[in-house]
Amino acid sequence: MASLSPDSIVRKNEDIFTGMIDNELVAMNIQNGKYYHLNETGARIFALLEEPRSIAEICRELEGSFKVAGDRCFRDVMDFIREMADFDLVSAG
User: Fold this and answer.
1) How many Å apart are CA 81 and CA 37, to the nearest integer?
2) H helices then E strands: how many in the chain?
3) Reading across the β-sheet that carries 53-54, which strands appear in turn?
4) Which helix (DSSP H) or strand (DSSP E) does residue 85 occupy?
5) pLDDT tens digits along 22-57
């Protein structure tokens, strides 16, 4: 994956199915049949990705909802996006 910056645009991949099970978001990659449980923060990010957004936009939303500082938010969101990209759930560039 290309290096990420606050201006990097993140997109949810098209072959992803999401649903709620026992108050947790589950994301399934239809192509490989694997599924992933997402915590509250991960679920919020996935909800924000109904439309492509920059990492900066995601962080602005999360900072208000979760009371997290800007630098910490950026690092955590970048780590999450990288992990989700490794699972082919999102793409960023």
Assistant:
1) 15
2) 3, 6
3) 53-54, 9-12, 90-92
4) helix 70-86
5) 878 899 888 888 889 898 888 899 889 999 999 999
| Identity of the residue numbered 69 | A
For residue 6, the tally of other CB atoms under 10 A from its CB is 15
Note the pLDDT tens digit of each residue in 9-24: 999 998 888 888 887 8
For 46, 71, 92, the CA distances from 13, given in Å and listed in that order, are 11, 26, 10
- E strand or H helix at 14: none
Extended strands (E) in the chain: 9-12, 16-21, 24-29, 34-38, 53-54, 90-92
